[in-house]
Design a protein that fits this description.
This protein is of the alpha+beta class. It has two domains: 94 residues, Pseudouridine synthase I, catalytic domain, N-terminal subdomain (Alpha-Beta Plaits, 2-Layer Sandwich), CATH 3.30.70; 137 residues, Pseudouridine synthase I, catalytic domain, C-terminal subdomain (Alpha-Beta Plaits), CATH 3.30.70.660. Helices cover 22% and strands 31% of the residues. It is built from five helices and ten strands, in the order βαββαβββαβββααβ. Strands 1, 2, 3, 4, 5, 6, 7, 8, 9 and 10 form a ten-stranded mixed beta sheet that branches. A hairpin with an 8-residue loop joins β2 and β3. The longest helix has 13 residues. It is globular, with a radius of gyration of 19 Å.
């Protein structure tokens, strides 16, 4: 009888073309599936909670796979970490009920986007450098209308193949750090590049390029073309996935 194993993962996405398996490029899912195949001696499909884009990192990605192996979850954790490269790590493994699904059982997802005001080799992989200063209060005011359930078509992406662009942002927080800013956004689900597009719009407000009211106008207009390019992937980290019992 098949068992279902849930994995919690962290990874540096710099070297990967995103989470989802691709034929001609290294991906996080692909690397982990190769390790699972070596352990189980058969191809094994890994299902992730979110398809992080190329260059995006994760501190709390969740995935699951099914197996008839009797290996204990903690043994899977040790075996995978012995085979995975240094930029991917399993932080927890547990057996879950058959009805669990890493993606469809998720109640919310939280991302962090990091801005640094210092151009340093120690931050270039994990934060977006801007010289600053930026008006944090103006950005908080601009973000307030985004909280709640809305049609986020203006902050999605043309290649996003979804049935609906309605999503619910349940929490937004902007923290000022010693040398930058951190945006925290929680939602039931996100459109492709939605966080990066939201941050791009807020940074235009923070720099004084547009008024805070412009973000609400973009939301109402549902016009992706009016927004401009998203911020770079390197500043984005998937922090955690929450489920009904969390």
């Amino acid at each position: 009888m098949a068992r279902k194993i849930k994995l919690t993962l962290e990874y540096d996405g710099t070297a990967y073309a995103g989470w989802q398996v691709q034929a001609e490029a290294p991906t996080v899912q692909g690397v982990i599936e190769e390790a699972l195949a070596a352990i189980l001696k058969e191809p094994t499909r890994l299902h992730g909670a979110g398809r992080t884009d190329a260059g995006v990192h994760a501190a709390g990605q969740v995935a699951h796979f099914e197996t008839t192996s009797e290996m204990a979850p903690e043994a899977f954790e040790r075996a995978l970490n012995s085979l995975l490269p240094d930029d991917i790590r399993v932080t927890a493994a547990e057996e879950v009920p058959a009805e669990f699904h890493a993606r469809y059982s998720a109640r919310s997802r939280t991302y962090r986007y990091a801005i640094t005001f210092t151009d340093s080799v120690f931050t270039r992989r994990h934060a977006y450098y801007l010289p600053g200063p930026l008006e944090a209060e103006a950005m908080r005011a601009a973000a307030a209308p985004l909280v709640g359930e809305h049609d986020f078509a203006a902050f999605g992406n043309a290649s996003d193949d979804v049935d609906t662009t309605v999503r619910e942002i349940t929490a937004f927080r902007l923290e000022e750090t010693l040398d930058g800013l951190e945006f925290y956004i929680t939602a039931n689900a996100f459109l492709y590049k939605m966080v990066r597009n939201i941050v791009a719009a807020l940074l235009r407000v923070g720099s004084g390029e547009v008024a805070p009211e412009e973000v609400e106008r973009l939301l109402a207009a549902k016009d992706r073309a009016a927004l401009g390019p998203p911020v770079p992937a390197r500043g984005l980290t998937l922090l955690r996935i929450e489920y009904g019992g969390d």
